[in-house]
Hints:
heterodimer, A: alpha+beta, B: alpha+beta, 6-stranded antiparallel sheet, 3-stranded antiparallel sheet, globular
Amino acid sequence: MHSGLGATMTDFAGWMMPLRYGSETAEHKAVRNAAGLFDLSHMGELIIEGGGAAAALDYALLADASAIKPGRARYTMICAPDGGVIDDLIVYRLTETSYLVVANAANTAVVAAELADRVSGRGATMTDRTDSYALIAIQGPRSAAILAGLTSADLDAVRYYASYDATVAGAQALLARTGYTGEDGFEIFVSPDEAVPVWAALTEAGSADGLVPAGLAARDSLRLEAGMPLYGNELSRDMTPFEAGLGRVVKLDKPGDFVGRAALAERAAAGPTRDLVGLVGHTRRVPRHGYTVLWDGEACGTVTSGAPSPTLGKPIAMAYLTPAAAAAARSDSGEDGGRLYVDIRGSAEPAGMVPLPFYKRPARD
Amino acid sequence: MSVPEELYYTAEHEWVAISDATARVGITDYAQRALGDVVYVTAPAQGTRVTAGDPCGEVESTKSVSDIYCPADGEVTEVNPEIDEDPGLVNSDPYGAGWIFKIKLDASDQVPPGLLSAAEYTALTADEE
């Protein structure tokens, strides 16, 4: 059993993080049906401020930072000059002259160094404030109802990808309607010494609504069902956003130069070298990260993430395929006589290609 | 973590219950906790000859896959018929309803060599934590 035991490692990018509290499948379903509470304090918080902050971030990131209104947020990326993805980020415009950039834990140091370098001389400074913020996420259809009783914010007015200064359980917080689960939900930035009481207050307020604490294992299966990329799996330095189907984050029409512009403009014109696709396994064996995808018996790509989907009840995966194989597989049902397979530890298991995401939340009433 | 006194263990986290020259095999409470929710178990087919120390099946969980190592030489006589339909039994009752397969032991008059006692297994898992 040795290899599998490694999966319990809760040392995540140097942070001791909860992988699961009880059953990760139960946690996953609670987020889909009620609500889950996540400790995301490992995420990096970087503050960029100064009179030139907007223009400096226009240069440093793919987003049109100047066009973000204070109180709003964008999903974006930071790329190398060759267009390779250094990290995917959420950038919040806090005021006219200050932004909060939230980076993945494992990438925070390199993103901080890149940002410090890229904004210097442009009228802005970068400060790594990761240790000044705890981040708690409440995700799931009951989130707003649970949070409403604990916050000063009018949650109906907090739109998706908007942020507000508010109190949560008496603590000063930055409250954002963002998440990584495919459900409605909020991310709550508070001072680390307020995190425990805020967590406790949310747990108590949500218990009647079915809120449970949820770990990184559930977070990963939730984001996979929602078709959201994970840095290190779907995103890396070796590819541009176009391969991941995220060309929309590349704002080639914004004025001025930005790091990676020339390479990304070229890739936009030429088309991606690989296509990120969704796969559904037709047996119970699960395609995992790194497994080879086969088309007509020939290797045509690699699985980036895979898991048994609690919502669909079968294995799902994201994979990079050659554009030719992706086009061919799109019209292949895989059910019988299918030609798409995943090599699962030496055995070719049939799979079918499906559009991403695997799961979309029902429209709100 | 539960480590029943009357069972034998492997360093790869299988448990073995021996009676009447037959070994019933499953994975330990420690293993099921480490793996997380089990979604699929592949056991050796009935009638298969198995050799101690060889991988003879797989336990697939939400996050990973692990080999099952055969704890003794013998022949597989039975596979838990419940486990295909409800692999979660491995989590909910690892030493009971979550057993995986049975082996008729070649050496019927002795405990297979190399197995660990409950105390030895407890010490081993304490080291891993």
